[in-house]
Amino acid sequence: MELQGICHKMHAGLKNPSVTDQQTHKANVEYKFVLDRAETDLPIQIGQQIELEWTGNIYCVSCGVKTPKSYAQGHCFKCFKTKAACDMCIMKPETCHYHLGTCREDSFAHEVCFQPHIVYLANSSALKIGITRLGQMPIRWLDQGATQALPIMKVGSRRLSGHLETMFAAQVADKTDWRKLLKGEAEPVNLPEIRDELVKSFAPEIQTIRDEFSQHTEFDENIELLENESAYEFIYPVSEYPEKIKSHNLDKTPIIRGKLMGIKGQYLMLDSGVINIRKYTGYELKIRT
Hints:
2 domains
């Protein structure tokens, strides 16, 4: 079987969700490839041999032009320099500069940045703090390979969520160790208990941020504490974790082969090494089994 198309990050969804006696949402994670922006069932099962081939072509996911190099996960250089989705404030939302009148795209700000956002705790390689748009739950957690997650605050903008994330990052990491992520499951933690401790510890700082953002009148900048949210647990399709992490690079080796041992986050784990599918957004791939 062979599939061919322009690669986008895999779509992760939940299968057979349930609620345990502890009111924890628990579900298995399943994946679909996204080629030419169309979802397709994975043509492989765990334990099957797979071959990925890069044709040598890269297409901008924004304007569609053929480009010799990919920037910011699938953009040509022109779009990288002009699109709001490629601005530094996407990586560091606390640096949002819309209020200064220098946003690259007004429409993007209204559609993405000034939508309800969630500040969350997750357990992937270890405990971390993060943010995502309300509509991106649980996709954001699954893309990061989190085995546990808990929303702790709901706010009115990306910039506000970024300030809260930066505040909490003084005590909780805001990055995932991808190598540790792919070596096994993180040790379970009590996320509601950690949430309560953090909110209590940072109460003065939260109030200071709330007071600062309450001065804005154009958008809803409220901070809502989510004290009664249930935690989530996710089970990934992995039969075996690698003892050593070897990362495949299609730019250096355009054809890779191996037995699929598991999928976690945006990584395919092969017995020959791991590959981050999201890294190759915009690449034209052939996938064979």
